[in-house]
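Exercise 7.
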Amino acid sequence: MQNGTHLAAVDLGSNSFRLEIGRLDHGLIQRTEYIKETVRQGASLDANGHLNEQAMERGWECLARFGERLAGFDKTQVRAVATQTLREARNRDVFLKRATKILGFQIDVIPGREEARLIYQGVARMLPQTPERRLVIDIGGRSTEMVLGQGLQAHTMESWQVGSVTWSMQFFPQGLFTAANFKAAEIAAQAVLEEAFEAFGPSHWDTAYGSSGTVGAVSDVLDAAGWPAGQISLQSLDWLLERLLKAQSMDRLKIEGLRDDRRAVVGGGVSVLRAIFNLLDIKTLHVAQGALRHGVLYDLLDREHGATDLRGRTIERLTHRFGVDVAQAGRVSRIAQRLLAMTPPSNEDLPRLQRKLDWAARVHEIGSHISHQDQHKHGAYILEHVDAPGFALEELQRLSLLVLGQRGKLRKIELHLDNEVFARQLLALRLALILAHARREPNLTGLVLSDKPALTLSLPTGWVERYPQSAHLLREEALAWQKTDFPLSVLEG
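Solution. The predicted structure, written as tokens, is:
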């Protein structure tokens, strides 16, 4: 991207929605605008895991305001990510369908470890590049992320379902602050986070940093009270706890530096933070300037280019881990991309779609690591559940569906064939697998896939006689597509 380009990140958090806009300046992103709105969706999940209508309306109204500000931005300049609340919400598709239309940009629900990675990127970009080993902690509304890393590289990432909103609802439901409530909340948080000690204990890091959310809110209060700026200690947390206990309730709490939007969740946030301090033996937590949204902005720069896109490196690691036949995977990829280019989906960025089709081709055989029979089903399952840095949940699901649909009847993925992009990518992949079925370079001279007036694969004169098995498989494939919205015909020369 050129210097001066404006980039935007939208963070759909459990407590607040945030919009960060920055200007690219020689590899750095300088803030030009920041908007934060308290939406509190995390407190609006019912017992069945559904977002209520009021919470969805609050979210839509906020995103409408963000969308107005982002009018004129290209889709390559904006990324919106959603975290724990929408990871949990069973009706998230209802919210996201309208939210995406209102905002005007795709919204990615990201896995917990991917959220942790992006948080680390945001924090690290705002710190001096030193060899220190860093622990980064982010206590959000419904989840807590921890990351170990050095420089710009995150090494160990984890996410737990414990946060300021959920702990406030569970242990301070009437907003009452008692010693018993805080003790119960801290014990419960330590029970959830206990496994963190082995991976994130004090022997693994030199300096601890806290990002955004609860850490930022606590820091504001401590700074206003005269504690060392930008630092949190257990002593300062003890002082803050005493102030909360003295107030006895959220409604009676009067403390400088505490914003109104944090009042309802301060009890839960402080109890989780104290639990982490005690569990990991933290002496001083330094308040970081960077956060998830900053990581998203810098990740936008990487995602623009295949060479720097972390998703590409993740695919490479998966192919190595599962012993994929790299030569065959590359062969299938080249053929599939060539076919997709012949009949590209309308009004779409073809290179971007080809890159994603390349990923599917590269990993289409990872299921054979488990069993050659039904390897497409095993591969789809792996992709649905594997830790894949850089990928959003929907991206992994699309990749999984392409792998699942690579062979056999189309009935198993027919609900997704109404999506033109997916259907054309899947067709290109399936045809590529047929053409490369002998695991050698096929003769594609004169072979043309067109969709005017109808979707047709034209074979050159003599091709059928030279490659009878391939021709037979292509005829079978055409039959499979006859009952879809993309009926395929094979025209033999």
